[in-house]
Amino acid sequence: MRSFIKTLLLFSAAISIVWLQGCKPKGTQSAVSGDAAAKVYVAPGKYDEFYSFTSGGFSGQMSVYGIPSGRLLRVIPVFSVDPEKGYGYSEETKPMLNTSHGFVPWDDLHHIALSETDGIQDGRWVFGNGNNTPRIARIDLRTFRTAEIIEIPNSGGNHSSPFITENSEYVVAGTRFSIPMDNSNGDVPINTYKSNFKGTVSFISVDKTTGNMNIAFQILMPGVNFDLARAGKGKSHGWMFFSCYNSERANTLLEVNASQKDKDFIVAVNWKKAEEYLKAGKGKKQSVKYAHNTYNEKKHSATSVIETEVTVLDSKELADMVYLMPCPKSPHGCDTDPTGEYIVGSGKLAAMIPVFSFTKMLQAIANKTFEGEYEGIPVLKYDAVLHGEVKKPGLGPLHTEFDDKGFAYTSFFVSSEIVKWNVKTLEVVDRVPTYYSIGHLSVPGGPTKKPWGKYVIAYNKITKDRYLPTGPELAQSAQLYSIEGDKMKLLLDFPTIGEPHYAEAIPAELIMKNSQKIYKIEENQNPFAALGDKYARVERQGNEVHVYMTSIRSHFTPDNIEGVKMGDIVYFHVTNLEQDWDVPHGFAVKGANNAELLIMPGETQTLAWKPERIGIFPFYCTDFCSALHQEMQGYIRVSPAGSNVAISFGTGKTDSTAIAAK
Length: 662
Ligand code: RUQ
Ligand code: CUA
Known about the structure:
Elements lengths: L1 H14 L1 H7 L12 H5 L9 E6 L6 E6 L3 E6 L21 E2 L2 E2 L5 E9 L2 E11 L4 E6 L4 E7 L8 E5 L5 E5 L18 H4 L2 E8 L6 E9 L3 E7 L7 E7 L8 H4 L5 E8 H9 L4 E13 L4 E14 L7 E7 L2 E6 L5 E6 L4 E6 H9 L3 E5 L2 E4 L1 H4 E6 L5 E6 L4 E6 L4 E6 L5 E6 L4 E5 L12 E6 L16 E6 L6 E7 L7 E5 L1 H4 L24 E5 L2 E9 L2 E3 L2 E6 L3 E8 L8 E5 L7 E3 L4 E6 L5 E6 L12 E7 L8 E3 L12
Parallel strand pairs: 13-18, 36-39, 38-44
Antiparallel strand pairs: 1-2, 1-34, 2-3, 4-5, 6-7, 7-8, 8-9, 9-17, 10-11, 11-12, 12-13, 14-15, 15-16, 16-19, 17-18, 20-21, 21-22, 22-25, 23-24, 26-27, 27-28, 28-29, 30-31, 31-32, 32-33, 35-36, 36-37, 38-45, 39-42, 40-41, 40-43, 43-44
The structure holds (dicuprio-$l^{3}-sulfanyl)-sulfanyl-copper and dinuclear copper ion.
The site of (dicuprio-$l^{3}-sulfanyl)-sulfanyl-copper has 12 residues, from strand 6, strand 26 and strand 30.
């Protein structure tokens, strides 16, 4: 996004600096109508109407807001470690961040895709993309936890991802950077880009019942940059549309060299056809390496498997599977309307919005109305597939969402506004300024067959004077507008975490009824669990010391541990015995080089600790769990390497649950 901002800023500067400034309202002025406060006010103890799942961009996480209040409800750790929750620090969660490059504790999460059934959000899972080390994550919406992460081979920059088909058959992943394929010799001069660099789009299947992901197939594509995508729906179900830029196939100074051609492409992929080819054995097996990480909720732990093969279908060789629609000037957003008939391309350097017709596209394919070929793929004639152009909508169109009344809402980065237009007539009916430089926007249900409408939320890239200053960096700003009337109305600004790109909002009732309250202790299959105080113990295995610890309001068992020596690694396996909603216990030990554990009711989590000096080390519960939370503490003694202090542990109790082994 940053280089993209630069391009657009240069571009806008070229147009007119005066003009750009003219479009940015000065100061903190904003046209907020009198009843705005009442429209976003959610009284204490009341719930918001929508959950909004918002990507964290370079924070690598996903955050959850209530809409219309804009209240932050949760940050879900996905691709980045999160010391607050011990994610990526506990032994159980570390494998979630494993990749073919080893442990990668960070990524850049841009896009959100909520699972769908028949083109309607079903509230089961939310998917997010890792942009940098290409990955897709699935979050389980019963627990709001990352359940699975799959790495994407043959990809460099997983931006065009994860976009979902109408029955969650697939989430897709298009590579932003084309690269030499993983199984080839990658040690080639960069200026051999045109001959050696290729693109891929991947179709990752999602199991109907479990949600488990698998790379069903990849399609080998010309070496362009894939940007965004949307699935067809209704009549266009079975197709996926990707935007791409750099059809010039430049490998340097893209801001100039990838803006030479008048048009790039919307890539239309007939994935039903791809499935036929796959069945007919037309795919080629390719050896690659990618991590597939799953979190087992019963074992309360993740495993990471390195997979070694993908099946690749070649777009050059297999006819009738991929077509190109010319799209003006470096397309970014590529969005399909609720009927599935219209495909909206957004050339970020174009001064209009082209809207393509799916019906016309099929006709053009049937009649072979091609203007030529690009890298062996037929290019359809622009005029033959065009429904029409939205004229003079604004500058720098990026993304489009839809409401339930036949209107589209497009974000304009350069002119800093949302423009509402009629999908059929292409007539602009309203526009509102955003503060400032909007990227994505989100209408609840906006990318689905059934938009819920009501609001549009702007995710702005630049904040400037909207909030109290906080040094050189300011929180990114989101803005909530009502779209219930003919005119959009600004209701609320709220700060966000990281740099939100996309967000998807969904009615609260589709999720809250399934929300899990505890993990059942009797179902805990973590091999290191202590399912009751009487199982608490400390065991030495060579230089590993395993502490099987329990926590319940307001003590740890054991809370006095001796016999640890320098050179040992201590594993604290802490089982939270609580069976009450919202009673996690935390665990932290002085000098630990990682983070705390935050253990949910019924769960077991493990902290590894390598003491680096002798002495007494306190540990305590970090989550205020009861009136005697501050008493929830203990000590562990570390002796010199050769010491003869034997392992001993206990709570000092004298009843039957006491397990002092001295
Ligand atoms: S992008 S601001 Cu990373 Cu979705 Cu368009
Ligand atoms: Cu347990 Cu505080």
